[in-house]
Predict the structure.
Amino acid sequence: MEMLNGVLQLDDFVTLTLGIIVLFVGITVTSRIEFLKKYNIPEPVTGGMVASILGLVAYLVFGLEIEFSLYARDVFLIYFFTTIGINARFAQLLAGGKPLLILLGLTLGYLALQDVVGFAAAAAMGQPSGVGVLVGSASLAGGHGTAIAWAPTISDQQGVGNALEIGVAAATIGLVIASLLGGPIAKFLLTRFDLTTDHEGDLVVGIERDKQDETSITHLNLMGAILIIHIAMILGFVLNEIIAGLGLKLPLFVSCMMVAIAMTNTIPLLFKRVAWPTGSKALALISDFSLGLFIAMSLMGMQLWEVAGLAGPLFGILAAQVLVAVLFILFVVFPLMGKNYFAAVLSAGFAGFCLGATPTAIANMSAVTKTHGPAPTAFIIVPLVGAFFVDVANAFLIQFFLTL
């Protein structure tokens, strides 16, 4: 912990401790406010928003800026996607084949639509086309990483001097909106069409609220799951280095998820006496904990005063993006994905990754399934589409729209 020129810099340990506190705050507040429970607002989102607002108060009233070390947050992101891979049996992947292809097609189409909306809205407001791309798939579907990566190019080609600030602000606001939008969309669809789950079994992420006192987690199966996660992460890092050496850059969590999928579909068949954690409550608990801390720490680190300084055209373009996203989900995604319980859960997830990020999508779906029941296929296909195909397609789309 260090104070420098009005900036309080918190180290990894303090940041992680505060992240756990923020997660507890979110659980407590959500459990006591009926509106948040009714509309499936993820608990880490509630806690993260409370923390970011307190950070804003500290900045405005005391002139104190708080900086968090987010190394632990990024580790939890890798943890989470590794658990998703460990839960992914090939049988489930094959069962999700058609929905996966449909979702992939919808996502690729929506990425183009998102850039068209951004491009048109920016032109209508007299802004450079680069601003429209930034407040399009670069920052919304792409998230902070893509926005930061493309900001220098957009600044040079389009003359947008504050491209980095616009991209980061749009990604931040998109993350918040995505976190708050998915649950209400699912709630509307579940109520409107009287939908319930037809899948029996445990959740992929977390434990259902009415079963949280019936867990069978021991120190042995918990440590066993952590060990397998760590092995998959180490091998995933090695794979990521090999892929990078071939000239293809992938996020580390994608490589770890790929290794985990390979492990979970080979090792239990070859070594039948190995206690494998796929589908276990221990793995679901680790997954829920990792995702919750990632979301809570991401939101508590938001610097809202910087977002407020980029109002005007930014909020106008974002309003258009949110409206189009809601309409697209309700009238395209939900019907084409089957108009059933699975489609409603997936709609919450689509809101998460088309405006925020893949972890936000999973958090949205987890909040819905904890209350209404499992939808395991959604948790398999959403990460595959949101964490891999989106990044690849986005690079081509952004480059195309920058040439217009």
User: Anything to note?
Assistant: The mean pLDDT is 86. The beta strands are 2-4, 7-10, 65-68. The radius of gyration is 21 Å.
